[in-house]
Structure formats: structure tokens, C-alpha cells
Amino acid sequence: MGAAVAAVIQRQEREIVDTFRSAGALSADRARDPEELDVRHHLAFDRLVRRAVLRDAGDGKFYLDELSWKALRSMRRRLLIGVLLLLIAGFVALFASGALVSRN
User: Fold this and answer.
1) 0.70 cut: is pTM over it?
2) Rounded to 5 degrees, what are φ and ψ at 64?
3) Quick check: helix, strand or coil at residue 51?
């Protein structure tokens, strides 16, 4: 269940990022009001603001920091690869110890 919620939030984050990118809101002087872009202030929006992917330009306007978005995606990718490597190492250790081998 937790993984499904995380997937939904990440999808919402991508949609928000795509919306700001499509609107050209990529710098403080081109910042846009989220309501004007039909973006609601919800968990995904707040997470992007906390991670400096969406930057507050004042007057309720925000813009997309592409470098921060790229860094966040890269960090998530590295984390996923690390978890997968740990799982693989765990299976290899179990197999090597004979725990996964059929004993007839």
C-alpha cells in the first residue's frame, strides 16, 4: 500500500513539473501562480517546494528549478538501484547458504 501511495505522489510531482515546464515558468521572472496553472497545493506540490524543485518567487508565484528536479530524480534513481542491489545480494547470500536450495 505504501509503495502505491508513493507512486501516486511521484506521478503527481511529474505532472506538476510538466505543467510548470509547459507554461515556461523556469525562472523567477517567468514564475506563475499555481492556481493559474490549475495546480493545487497538496502533498506533491509541498514536497516539490520543500526540495527546492519549485521555488517561491513571491506574490504566490513559483517557478521550476530544472537542476533541482534533475538532482532529485538522480537521487531517487540511485536509491532504487541501491535497494535492488541489496535485495539481489540478499538472495545470493540465501542461495549460497543453501537456504533456497531444495533438499530432497
Assistant:
1) yes
2) -85, 125
3) coil
Q: What is the pLDDT of residues 34-47, one digit of tens each?
A: 999 999 888 999 99
Residue 39's closest CA among 66, 21, 65, 57?
A: 21
* 103 is a domain residue: no
Range of the domain at 24: 2-96
CATH of the domain at 29: 1.10.10
Distance of CA 88 to the CA centre of its chain: 24
The Cα–Cα gap between 78 and 76 comes to 5
